[in-house]
Amino acid sequence: MGDEIIPGTGDWHFGLAGIVYKPFVKLLESELGLKEGENFFVAYYDWRKPIEHSARRYLYDTIQHAKKVTGKKKVAVVSHSMGGLVSRSYIESNYYKFDVSQLIMMCTPNAGSPPNFSYWTGGSLPGESGEKINLVRLYMDAYLWLLPRVTNMSEVSAIHEYFKGLKDITPGAAYGNYLFMKNSGGEFGVVPYQSMETKNKFLDVLNKKREVVKKRHIPITLIGGIGEETIRYLEIEPSDSSDIWVDGEVTGSLKTELGDGNATLSSVFSIEGDKHILEGSHNEVLYKSLPLLANKLGRSYEEKTLDYPSFDEYSLIILKGRGHIKVKEKGEHYSQLVRPDTSTSIDHHLSVVRIKQMSCLVVSQEFLRSHTVHFVPHELKDVDYILIKKGSRTENHIHVSSKDPLPVNGLLTLH
Asked: Which of 38, 134, 344, 368 is deepest in the core (most CB within 10 A)?
């Protein structure tokens, strides 16, 4: 998040994803002895833009800055999820400066990920009510809900105009055929990738020239997660629209536990590298990779049981209206004030971002058991909100005042 993505949100920061990444950054510093700004640098980038743009505009600049600060000729790049594709785009490019000593990719869908096809072509992903929460899906559902409201465009038109990077993580040819079309008789047939309108040209080119990484002698480490239900194939039905669901409307999915909830193991491991498998979700793998990261980066590390967050029970709430968030421990005075013009996160429990006259919160159930969270409006008025939790979505508006603020805890009982 930052002004380059949404004006008024300030300098670069993790935004709502701070609930995942800020505790991880703290562990890199406390456990591996790294220090941000000295020998450790975060490459923020505009994930909405095409991945090639992110590589050249953001990652390249961060690497050059790191070399200048440290006086080193090369950097080790540690990447997660989409960040791995940004990194590959740089090291395979014709402007590569031979300044990457190694690339570590955690949960990177090197062949793409089917849910992104559903978001790109239809603006949504069908899901079963009550399914285990998935933070990536939580963020995606929230952003795609916000996007058409901010741009005054239809959902799919807004995605294609403002979120071009999404197409770059749809499945490419290396993934194989992943769509199954249901015919009038109720039977399913495979839709060949080459016959689809929605092809991932970026990944197809990237994977065709992946041998250049070996020629450039860049060691690759691939870390994949397993044990989480992960969409492997999509079920579709014919669609008559030329603007939405152009290859067929997604109506269901086939899942595997050989994945981290977002990226299948076969996609992560679709390129050559030193391969490692960890049991955990897309975000948990970050924390479980710490001993391996220490080994690969040549840092000392004392094995211990780490207190890393469980990402099973989180909710996302977006409140529309001028106001601020107050947090207090139950039975205590307010201990945290989130100002209207700032963003904040409390460890891995609560993350708040202000976007114009909207407050976006990601909060864990664990936090709400010991704290009370209120939205305090600046004046008496109706407040609109959307709540996304466990695949369900609730939209409503309520009349509140500064004397009678809106209890976020109470919203979580609504379905």
From this structure: 134
Q: What's the start-to-end Cα distance of the chain, in Å?
A: 29
For β-strands 188-191 and 75-80, DSSP reports them as: unpaired
Q: Quick check: helix, strand or coil at residue 351?
A: strand
Burial class (CB in 10 A: 0-12, 13-18, 19+), 369: exposed
- Determine the Cα–Cα distance for residues 49 and 171; give it in Å rounded to an integer: 18
Instruction: Clarify whether residues 211 and 71 are in a common domain.
Output: yes
User: Per the structure, how many domains does the chain have?
Assistant: 2
Q: What is the pTM of this model?
A: 0.91
**What 3-state DSSP class applies to 234?**
strand
Q: What is the pLDDT of residues 311-369, one digit of tens each?
A: 667 888 888 888 888 888 876 665 555 555 566 777 778 888 877 778 888 888 888 88
**Cα–Cα distance, 29 to 24 (Å, whole number):** 9
- In 3D space, the residue among 10, 15, 76, 71 whose CA is nearest the CA of residue 41 turns out to be 76
- Domain shared by 286 and 376, yes or no: no
Co-location of 223 and 361 in the same domain:
no
Residues contacting 383, CB < 8 A, separation 6+: 319, 320, 321, 323, 375, 377, 397, 398, 399, 400, 406
